[in-house]
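Researcher: Good morning. I'm working through a list of sequences from a screen, and I'd like to move beyond sequence-only analysis. For each chain I'm collecting a predicted structure so we can compare shapes side by side. This is the next one on the list. No need for commentary yet; just the structure.
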Amino acid sequence: MSTQNPVFIPGPTNIPEVIRKACDIPTMDHRSPAFGRILAPALSGVRTVLGMSEGEVIIFPATGTAGWEGAVANTLSPGDKVLSGCHGMFSQRWIELCQRHGLDVHVINSPWSEGVPMAEFESALSADTAHAIKAVLVTHNETATGVMSDVAAVRALLNRLGHPALLMVDGVSSIGSVAFDMDGWGVDIAVTGSQKGFMLPPGLAIVGVGPKALAAMEGAKLTRGFLHFGDMIAAYRNGSYPYTPSAGLINGLNVAMQMLLDEGLENVYARHARIAEGVRQAVFAWGMTPCAARPELYSNTVTAVAVPEGFNGSDVVALAATKYGVAFGAGLGAVAGKVFRIGHLGMLTDVMALSGIATAEMCMADLGFPIKLGSGVAAAQEYYRTTAS
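Model: Good morning. Structure tokens for this chain:
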């Protein structure tokens, strides 16, 4: 696969050259004041992107999965009850992680074209008069299906019912690319990673921990070692880490935060919305639809394209890689073969998006899909052309 071509997977995303260079630093003493001068602005920038005014930002040398584990391990105890919808590969994996920790997960299964099952959540939480449910897990953006859920609606439900459960949110493929308001939405723990909207290589699990979650740490009994929030918070007071950090990635994160803030977060979110809509216009022009069931569920970071009956989305992905040197995302789990995914987040422009749309069209034409070559490109061009500022 050519390294000159942009990738269209929903993470890892394309890395701006300035960030790649920022990650390339000489070895430094992570217990020196120099490291503290890198860490402090990175933490501050993440706090701004998360929309949090209280609590702590924790950055582990890991990936988003470690963020999930840290969220539950630091706040819950063996046997605690957790409520989660299962409507995609990544909500499913977080559920499985909780089960491995001995948590009692109340799983509500939904079609993988849907988001958080609000009616079923309301029934489960209303019936829980003893408040046995200690946490509600929400996948903000399901990377496998391109479905975006309404986090604020879940908090509103908890507040209306007077339920004290922690609200934990997986924002791995949303934070940094679409609006996220930890304070306004009442999110207690938000989990993300370096390799998507933050445009970095994989290697940082980024967790926003609100005041309520910090208080829950006091009585939590699940085992945690490497992912201990308390150890991280204590080390931060000295501008350091309890163990060796990924200094280069944190320096890159600092630059990434500055890039996002210089562009302006509202402009970042508008850019993602515009690029995403152009991709969707192409999908409709092909006579296809996103996997997401309704427009209000459409993701602005990834579109899972539902392929026609009798065709395999994985063939599109394979051919793009071998013939054209371009990466798309394959369908995962229950939608394997039924979709292929176009990631449109991070360092991306409408011009870059057009190259991905054109490549997908060539692959589908090569494979005999019932599409007209150029139809999707033309639809996206028209949208981008008429919405350019």
